[in-house]
From TrEMBL:
Keywords: DNA-binding. This is Excisionase family DNA-binding protein. Signal peptide: none annotated. It comes from Lederbergia citrea. Pfam families: HTH_17 (PF12728).
Length: 76
């Protein structure tokens, strides 16, 4: 499925100007049909899956309780 620059910006929640700059830098693959750029939506699947994975890992880490303070004293 191909998206326009505006649709891609909405899908990725970035400004249109940022998407345009990524296309110019070659970081997003796009096809120019003579009038506009068309972007294949599937190229973002892996990135979005990784972001969801990292979010879950961070949530799990933050949900772990802090370990007990052992309050070790040096007894001489």
């Amino acid at each position: 499925m191909y998206l326009s620059i505006e649709e891609t910006a909405e899908y990725l929640q970035f400004p249109v100007s940022y998407i345009e700059s990524l296309i110019q830098q070659g970081k997003i693959r796009a096809v120019h049909d003579g009038e506009r750029y068309m972007i294949n939506k599937e190229q973002f699947t892996t990135h979005l899956e990784q972001m969801e994975k990292y979010k879950r890992q961070l949530e799990e880490y933050l949900a772990e309780p802090l370990p007990e303070d052992l309050d070790i004293k040096d007894e001489d």
